[in-house]
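Quick one: structure tokens for this chain, please?
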Amino acid sequence: MPSTALCPNCHSDLTYENEGLMTCSQCFHEWDPATATAAANDEPTLVRVLDSNGNELHDGDSVIVIKDLPVKGMPRPVKAGTKVKNIRLTDGDHNIDCKIEGFGAMGLKSEFVRKA
């Protein structure tokens, strides 16, 4: 039995060949194994994260919240004007990980902050 390739999308080993393409049985992602091995050798692509004013954000930057943001499970929102230091950029919907004093660790959307 030939060894199967890992899915580049969900990293499952439950993949199979289908008409020259590899298909993942978990997430149904299809890819060409020839281009996937070439892409795996390249450096990962960096996604640019922009604040509400269009400035590019980087890990370690400080940002300011531009509007009151309700926090699930908390009686009060994060107020506009709150300064957040030492952010970390991530992939996904909430692309900023940070710690806010009085609230703890949370994720923010870059569209609701501006670079300090």
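The longest strand covers residues 96-100.
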